[in-house]
Design a protein that fits this description.
Layout lengths: L1 E3 L2 H13 L4 E6 L5 H13 L2 E6 L9 H6 L4 H10 L4 E3 L3 H4 L20 H4 L3 H16 L3 E5 L3 H13 L5 E5 L19 H7 L1 H12 L5 H14 L4 E9 L15 E9 L2 E8 L2
Bound molecules: adenosine monophosphate (AMP).
Length: 282
């Protein structure tokens, strides 16, 4: 695996590779890698000639500075894991490299309603930060294929919107959420949970499954309230939201419609750690 730390080095390498007709697959991450990330690497390896992974904990997407400071960093383990998976290139830039003009006053991205719902409501500015880093990364890597996890459902929609706004020709592939045997969605943030909290945290997946099993059997608001109660009863401190939305635009579903494609999305705190998850209801 080749490790590049500067944009210029990466650009030079990729320019030659692309000129030689090689298809590129890109997996952007914030590190603290787990099997969810490696599932994306494997997908990329199956579909592209060169797989590029980036590790960059992006400061502009953290609305809470303490969350940024506490974000797990396990770079040596990550490098080993990426090598084991046969990753071709690791891009490991510094903050200065990604934000040469500083963190303030970035471009504003017109994300429409996506910006102010769900994650956008609870993490103001978060998706602007996601767009700033993805805009920069995609402009440098210009991959044929971009691999994202469904685990971050709204983020996938935001990045698709960014690709539209910026006319990126990259094809976006959304991969299913990898879970622990317990059902808990894999996440770098799980590293901050005690074993006991990890066990309790399975309540999110249980609640999402409860919604899936009972959709159409009671009013949507009742089902959402019952799902929320399940999470709180399991020992969560706070549920930001557990909501049934239309899968294509994340607008709330007021009343069940038998043929609509829906997704249940959730964000909740346990042990001071904010976890998100979602489940398609079809
Ligand atoms: P992150 O490092 O959390 O920014 O995630 C990097 C990429 O991995 C994003 O596209 C995530 O959606 C994806 N990802 C994170 N967790 C999982 C998971 N459990 N299963 C599949 N993909 C995931």
């Amino acid at each position: 695996m080749i490790v590049f730390k500067t944009c210029q080095q990466l650009l030079n390498y990729l320019e030659k590779a692309k000129a030689a007709g090689r298809k590129t697959g890109f997996v952007p991450t914030m590190g603290a890698l787990h099997a969810g990330h490696t599932s994306l690497i494997r997908l990329s390896k199956a579909q592209a000639d060169i797989t590029i992974c980036s590790i960059f904990v992006n400061p502009t997407q953290f609305n809470d500075p303490r969350d940024y400071e506490k974000y797990p960093v396990t770079i040596e383990k990550d490098i080993l894991l990426l090598e084991t998976e046969g990753t071709d290139i690791l891009f490991l830039p510094s903050v200065q490299e990604m934000y040469p003009s500083g963190l303030q006053n970035g471009e504003h991205y017109n994300l429409g309603h996506l910006e102010n719902i769900l994650e956008g409501t609870y993490r103001p500015g978060h998706f602007q930060g996601v767009c700033r880093i993805m805009d920069r990364l995609l402009s440098i890597v210009q991959p044929h294929l971009l691999f994202l996890g469904q685990k971050d459902y709204q983020q996938c929609m935001v990045i698709k919107k960014l690709a539209q706004l910026k006319n990126f020709s990259t094809q976006i592939v959304i991969a299913p959420t990898l879970r622990e045997k317990s059902g808990l969605a894999m996440s770098s943030r799980n590293m901050r949970l005690s074993d006991e909290a990890k066990e309790k945290a399975t309540a999110i997946y249980e609640a999402l499954k409860y919604i899936k099993e009972n959709i159409g059997l009671m009013p949507v608001a009742t089902l959402e309230q019952q799902a929320k109660n399940k999470i709180m009863q399991a020992g969560f401190e706070k549920v930001d939201y557990i909501t049934i939305c239309h899968a294509n635009n994340l607008q709330p579903v007021e009343e069940w419609q038998p043929h609509a494609e829906m997704v249940a999305v959730c964000a909740a705190f346990i042990d001071g750690v904010r976890l998100i998850d979602n489940l398609l209801l079809q």
